[in-house]
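Lab notebook page, bench 4
Experiment: in silico fold of construct C2
Operator: M.H.
Input chain length: 522 residues
Purpose: comparison with the prior construct
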Amino acid sequence: MAKPLLTIDTLRGRNNVDPPLLVPNDQCVEASNVELSVAGVATKRLGSGIVGTTFASGGPFVAPLNALFRHVPAADEGVSQLWAIDGSAAPKFAYVTGGATWTEITPTDAATLADVGYANAASFNGKLFLAYNSAVDRMHVWDGTSLRRVGIGTPAALTAANTGAGTWAATARYYKAAFIASLSGTTLRRSATSATLTFTPSGTGTHTRLTMPALLSEGETHWEIYASTDNSLFYLIATTAVGSTVFDDNLPGAQVPTVTGTAIPTSGLNIVPASWKYIATNGNKLIGAGSWESGGYNNRVWFTPALGTLNVGDDERVPSTTTLKNWVDLEENDGGYITGIVGQFQGVTLVFKYRQFWKLIPTGVDTAPFRPVKISNIVGAVSHKGIIEGEDENGQPAIYFLSQRGPYRYGSSGLEYLGHDVEDKWALSMENGSYISNGDTSHGIYYPRRRQVWWVWRQPALLAEDILMILNVPKVRRTATGTTGGWAIYIVPARYITAMVPYATIMSTTNSNQLVPFLYNY
């Protein structure tokens, strides 16, 4: 008797979990190095090319690249930049654009080598904001000119002395200072104000001579002087270039409020972002979470004011006043620490902890801009770089992420488990605990042209390799028993994949806006 003929007209991917006789007819036990998104069954996966690492200035890279970012400094994607950080003893920062050679950028604060693989970035307001660990509790930003600390730190208090011979009244005066960065008369950013200096003139001088606090070397161009006669109401009395380190004051008390008519900024309005672990943007705010510092807030989400609020460093300050608290705490002692964020998804911000998943819903109320709502108390994410924005098989927006159980998706159908068909591989990845102690190993990207999610899964040390797990989104199906299909494996020709990012398929004077995966492996 002839065996029945099995016709395979479509293949939805691997399933090495179910017993072979129970594997559905549109799946196979293994799908290795094949494309599933562009054919009914499968085609050979595409190859790759090499991106040169010649430097026009600085360089060269002397160690594997541990981080890659795409920065778009303007609305035109043709001027996008590919950024990299290597793993040398003093990690090198460099970028390439327009298909030309790389340019090394020396940061104000060096990155801590052990944590370079965790560095992440966000393009916002024409700048590249970078979250990396350094010896300073501050965020960093590339503004097109320098890779510096975000904002301006708080200056020390002013110092004062008597000067001249006269009858400057021996009446107590109170002073505070602030640094600003100004360009062509426009204030770009302002520091918090200093502690108060209380000074009573001798009565036999002509002025109180105020001396500028020590410069912070954070781009400050001018120092502002605020005065008060009652230690309560302070007013701006002078703005002086930092090249002039003293200012002489002998204003009658009644004139202090009228010199400029400008009151001192509200206390706490110009707080600089600390050393956040994770950053993202929702389009008009920079959002950060976690802390690199011992004793920092590991379950707090911070956010800058909306652009245009003051037009003075709105993207580089985090207000914390008596009425404005630009942060939200998410159960500091439950669910582990925050592990990643998505700045904008269907109008909300998503925040992941190791075993929790939250959304922050805008309220429209300045004093409480977000309302936190918990989505899951069981499922969270293992790493920020493993959280990927893409679309589902129907073209709807979706967020893909790796949990302690395996891959999940959040979108139009809520929270979906995607990992049934690859539980064999995920179990191997979790054997040595790499996703608990070394979250940078689980990183990924979305490949829009092929509608694929690419994840790097680190295998146990005995296998000594990373594998690329590829989810071919058009092959995913929602069934009565769960969401399955779409999985293939890419075997890479080297041991580890340390960084990946989607970037222009054509790198020339004007970069292509068609994005393909860029990977560094060795």
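Observations: The first helix runs from residue 423 to 431. Confidence is low (pLDDT under 50) at residues 434-439.
Next step: discuss at group meeting.
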